[in-house]
Amino acid sequence: MGSLTYDGTVVSFDDRLLTHLQIVIVQQFRRRESFTMSWLDPLSAGDGRSSVWLHPECHLYFKFSGSRVPAINEEWLRRLTDSARGSHGLVVTQEDGRLARAEGLGLRR
Questions:
Q1: pTM of the full predicted structure?
Q2: Cα separation of 28 and 55, whole Å?
């Protein structure tokens, strides 16, 4: 399980999902585009959802637990990219299209 750190908040996702998110986010930033990213909170944090506003000047840190880059699913990548460009922003989904739940959520000190 890897993590994404943004403004002191650490959100944990499976490495495979996080790899796809990293590709989409970097593509958006290269276009100088800002957008929201939303996900389901881990059950340990309640049954809600969270969103963050991402912009090209923000500082993101991607930490992967494994050393190998997972295989990239081009169709999943396309769906995530389309989502990031849409009015709802990047809605984090699993490979099968279901909403993705973060595995952990916390504050970095």
A1: 0.92
A2: 9
